[in-house]
């Protein structure tokens, strides 16, 4: 199986939880998706209202940075797949001039950093 670079969290348009679990525990998930990503997934899994979204793994971001800002093979396709899924769940399109999908882009790490 190919390495997974992106994990979805939140609910679909029908209210079904479509969160993908990144680890066996929240602590393990934090090493995969960062603290924010793991906590958003955990909140969705216990039924709290979480805006739908997806998280790119910490390892993918490290690989991107280490390769001189070049994405590992297949990552952009995976991100595009998850963007399309998010557009479908929200009923909006990124960049649409009439009713755009608005997103928040946040950084995260496996551990909390001061500042």
From TrEMBL:
Enzyme Commission code: 2.7.9.1
Transmembrane segments: none
Residue stretches making up the Pyruvate phosphate dikinase AMP/ATP-binding domain: 33-70
Gene Ontology molecular functions: ATP binding; kinase activity; pyruvate, phosphate dikinase activity
Entries under InterPro entries matching the protein: ATP_grasp_subdomain_1, PPDK_AMP/ATP-bd, Pyruvate_phosphate_dikinase
Domain of life: Bacteria
A Pfam family matched in the record: PPDK_N
Keyword annotations of the record: Pyruvate, Transferase
SUPFAM superfamilies, per database record: Glutathione synthetase ATP-binding domain-like
Protein name: Pyruvate, phosphate dikinase
Organism of derivation: Candidatus Olsenella pullistercoris
Lineage of origin: Bacteria, Bacillati, Actinomycetota, Coriobacteriia, Coriobacteriales
